[in-house]
Amino acid sequence: MQATRHEEGPERHRVALVGTGHRGAGMWGKELLQGWRDRTEFVAICDVNEMRATAARTAIGTNAPVYTDVDEMLASVKPEIVIVCSRDDTHDEIIVKALEAGCRVITEKPMTTTPEKCRRILEAEARTGRPVDVTFNYRFAPTAARIKQLLREEAVGTVTSVDFHWYLDTQHGADYFRRWHAKEAHSGSLFVHKATHHFDLLNWYLESVPREVSAFGTQRNYGRNGPFRGERCQTCSHARDCDFYFDMSKDPWLTMLYEDPSAEDGYVRDACVYREDIDIADTMTAMLRFENEVIVSYSLNTFMPIEGYHLAFNGTKGRIEVRQYERQAFETPDHDEILLMRNFGGVERIRVPHAGGGHFGGDDRLRDMLLRPGMTDPLGQRAGALAGAMSMLCGAAAVASMKSGRPVRLAELGGLPA
Ligand SMILES: NC(=O)c1ccc[n+]([C@@H]2O[C@H](COP(=O)([O-])OP(=O)(O)OC[C@H]3O[C@@H](n4cnc5c(N)ncnc54)[C@H](O)[C@@H]3O)[C@@H](O)[C@H]2O)c1
């Protein structure tokens, strides 16, 4: 789906970071400056919360000026690249402004949260001729790349169906219910915020896009399901009894980025996972029918004892299966094993070692692809705005189906320019 693109441009990119929470200050801040200093110069650090931006600037290790207003930042420093790491529902406005100012944009996933916002971004990209990259880092994980190769080689013939089940553990899953992600207006729900990764992987693996989605979603553990509730863990009278009690004071990074700056906007990192106004599902399934007739069974669970996924491609000549464990209490191997099973034949066990760094090395490969010169892209791992839109629209269709109780076609959402 994605054409090969080679990164060219100046030796050191003039980068503005917008959104300085954990992702911005970490992956796209401190780590970027540590590993890609020869390619990156920060020219602005921008966040609506000045205290967080200032704390992040120190943590990142730059003297770049701090801004709280994107317009002012764009006009003052004229960055070459704007990296967007703000809350999901704010991405579109920042992306469009940056494109209009002539910048190249690297945006965190999900690209945005509604079909209307998707269309706005795609129209701005076409109008300005400036590119948007969406950071689908899971495409760059070693196991994903190996599976993509096998599918390209038609190792199991023509793929007819896919089983894809993703599990978030009680730590990672709960984190989404402590913060803005728990409100559909901010995250688009986990069908958008989280599943955008998974729908993007499907679109990329299958080199097609879904025509139609049928979905169910329920809230069974967080929100109103809690046996009690408070405002936040730090002040909660139920701290001793709550399985989800989270003592943020033990984490200096989170304390620095969130606790002190919360004085400015009240945004706390340890809000109660049982808040009654949480309006997103925590247990979801979807069925997708792709344009190339592949059918997919997908699920996302958010309070599991395991973190990882189960993925299988069923084809006319066999089956590719992988069970990936990312983090759990019991011991798991330091590698993934892809089972390549051929109809009427044997099984080939393909061992894929885990690389270091975020997403088993995927985060580093992604940053290389976006910032190092001369990178080739034989597997089409680099993702643009159209890929960002298509995976977001899968999630929007799932939410629409969940609410209406009927299958929803992506075409009816109006998320693509006419
Ligand atoms: N690819 C991945 O694996 C991955 C992992 C984590 C987060 N993310 C994405 O990164 C982004 C940031 O996540 P996070 O966990 O750091 O969130 P966060 O809430 O910790 O940080 C977001 C920051 O954006 C700021 N902000 C909100 N509106 C803004 C605006 N209009 N202009 C400027 N700043 C604004 C907030 O003040 C906050 O500091 C999200 O889009 C998230 O989906 C991606």
From TrEMBL:
<protein>
    <submittedName>
        <fullName>4,5-dihydroxyphthalate dehydrogenase</fullName>
    </submittedName>
</protein>
<dbReference type="InterPro" id="IPR051450">
    <property type="entry name" value="Gfo/Idh/MocA_Oxidoreductases"/>
</dbReference>
<feature type="domain" description="Gfo/Idh/MocA-like oxidoreductase C-terminal">
    <location>
        <begin position="148"/>
        <end position="410"/>
    </location>
</feature>
<dbReference type="GO" id="GO:0000166">
    <property type="term" value="F:nucleotide binding"/>
</dbReference>
<feature type="domain" description="Gfo/Idh/MocA-like oxidoreductase N-terminal">
    <location>
        <begin position="14"/>
        <end position="135"/>
    </location>
</feature>
<dbReference type="InterPro" id="IPR004104">
    <property type="entry name" value="Gfo/Idh/MocA-like_OxRdtase_C"/>
</dbReference>
<dbReference type="InterPro" id="IPR036291">
    <property type="entry name" value="NAD(P)-bd_dom_sf"/>
</dbReference>
<dbReference type="InterPro" id="IPR000683">
    <property type="entry name" value="Gfo/Idh/MocA-like_OxRdtase_N"/>
</dbReference>
<dbReference type="Pfam" id="PF01408">
    <property type="entry name" value="GFO_IDH_MocA"/>
</dbReference>
<dbReference type="Pfam" id="PF02894">
    <property type="entry name" value="GFO_IDH_MocA_C"/>
</dbReference>
